[in-house]
Design brief:
With 396 residues, this protein is α/β, with parallel strands linked by helices. Among the domains are: 124 residues, FAD/NAD(P)-binding domain; 73 residues. It is 28% helix and 23% strand. It is built from 11 helices and 17 strands. The strands form 3 sheets. Strands 1, 2, 8, 9, 10, 11 and 17 form a 7-stranded mixed beta sheet that branches. Strands 6-5-13-14-15-12-16 form a 7-stranded mixed beta sheet. Helix 1 runs parallel beside helix 5, helix 7 packs parallel to helix 10 and helix 9 packs across helix 10. The radius of gyration is 22 Å and the shape is globular. It starts with 8 loop residues before the first strand and ends in a 23-residue tail after the last helix. The chain binds flavin-adenine dinucleotide. Flavin-adenine dinucleotide binds next to helix 1, strand 2, strand 3, strand 12 and strand 16.
């Protein structure tokens, strides 16, 4: 790395995950000079990224999508098709759609990231009119987590549960071997467009998350319930990250946190990529017009949405499997606008408030409402000892 002599640029992007890559690309397209920094800028992004198709910005070409599921399935007490196309992104396609040819890409790890400068361990420094901090999420600790264990299965083996063009977005069927006194998790299973299907058991909202071995056992139980046996040689992926990375306060940020680092990780879904891609132009336009990107990205209505989603995350983290199933059943009966307000929209606070209120108001038995709002069983799964999980969850 030799950055000590680099000239000052308009924009410095620190971290080249999908968010930083998109921000650097759109800044270049807007005619700004850009330096982007990452310890391994050419490393393929590890996770599989998915989203609703209508969440993606118009400027992104269709080649960024690997495969589309026109109407994904949700299993609660019954099977439901959601009439809203969902997609798995193509990581090579996404990168190709975001060329950084005119940027200076620096291979290095930033040690200090502040308003107008970025520093490195060897004393080198990059100055910029605006610095965006896109270094992703800090480590989890005891924060509220998204935990998932994913197994990649060839399409033929997966066929009894998932076929091409279809996908299980949320599967709450009681097939994972977890008892009623164990923290809940659901199955997510989608074809990836490359002849494989990922089966991912997912837990949302538990403090410190759910261990990988528990999630794996639960997937194997589900697959066995459908007659699917694995060889044990299938590759896998792990997710374990915080869901409560809040938006920057005005005047608090020294550099501009953006993407998952800047409050764009959805507290209830664990998704951030599509939302971050969509908000890139808001940040760049604000910069070009001399306005504060944080104020433009986070008006009061977006902060209200974030606050309500955090309340929902806290609720989610204390429910039982039976309560989750009932709650998601109610949610997927809500209006399309209400569903989108919770799942996708950055600032539709009125629809979000309505859908959350309705879900609590229609919860039955009545006393479950107290769990939802946290008057009872507030810390139901806090310090749950997974080592003591009954054998029912360990079947294989
Ligand atoms: C298994 C799994 C499945 C997932 N599925 C989805 C999904 O379907 N949809 C979705 O939206 N999200 C999904 N996620 C979450 C997803 O990982 C994040 O939403 C996304 O990666 C956030 O992008 P980002 O650019 O903000 O941060 P990151 O992708 O974390 O990128 C941060 C970048 O910063 C760099 N960096 C870190 N420190 C420094 C430093 N000091 N100096 C310079 N660079 C630095 C890193 O090298 C990295 O390249 C999933 C996560 C996992 C683990």
């Amino acid at each position: 790395m030799s950055v000590s002599a680099l000239r000052e640029v308009d924009v410095c992007v620190v971290g080249l995950g999908p968010t930083g890559w998109a921000l650097a690309h759109r800044a270049l397209r807007a005619g700004l000079s850009v330096t982007a920094i990452d310890p391994r800028p050419d490393r393929p992004w590890p996770p599989t990224y998915s989203c609703w198709v209508d969440e993606l910005p118009d400027w992104l070409p269709p080649s960024a999508i690997a495969t589309t599921i026109p109407a994904p399935t949700v299993w609660t007490k019954t099977e439901r098709r959601i009439d809203r196309p969902y997609c798995v992104l193509s990581k090579p396609g996404l990168r190709k759609a975001l060329p950084l040819d005119d940027a200076t890409v620096v291979t290095g790890r930033a040690t200090r990231v502040v308003a107008h400068r970025v520093e490195f361990a060897d004393g080198a420094m990059q100055a910029a009119a605006a610095v965006f901090d896109t270094r992703g999420l800090p480590s989890l600790g005891r924060r509220r987590a998204a935990s998932a264990h994913g197994i990649f299965v060839d399409a033929e083996t997966a066929a009894p549960m998932v076929v091409d063009g279809e996908g299980l977005l949320l599967d709450w069927r009681p097939e994972n071997g977890a008892g009623p006194d164990e923290p809940p998790s659901f199955l997510y299973a989608v074809p990836l467009g490359d002849g494989t299907v990922v089966f991912e058991e997912t837990s949302l909202g538990l403090r410190g998350g759910m261990p990988q071995h528990v999630l794996r056992k639960r997937i194997l139980n589900r697959l066995a319930a459908h007659g699917i046996r694995l060889t044990g040689t299938e590759s896998s992926e792990a997710a374990h990250y915080p869901l409560d990375q809040r938006p920057p306060r005005k005047g608090e940020a020294r550099a501009i946190p953006f993407g998952s680092r800047g409050g764009m990780m959805h507290p209830c879904t664990g998704y951030s990529v599509a939302n971050s891609l969509t908000l890139v132009d808001t940040a760049i336009t604000a910069l070009r017009q001399g306005r504060d990107p944080i104020a433009e990205l986070w008006p009061l209505r977006a902060r209200l949405v974030y606050w309500m989603r955090m309340r929902a995350l806290h609720g989610l983290g204390r429910l039982t499997t039976e309560q989750c199933t009932t709650m998601f059943d109610a949610f997927f009966s809500a209006s399309p606008r209400g569903q989108r307000a919770l799942l996708s929209r950055h600032d539709d606070y009125a629809a979000l408030g309505t859908v959350l209120f309705d879900m609590v108001a229609h919860t039955w038995p009545f006393h479950w409402r107290y769990d939802l709002v946290g008057w009872t069983n507030r810390n139901r799964w806090l310090d749950y000892d997974f080592a003591q999980a009954p054998v029912s969850a360990a079947r294989r």
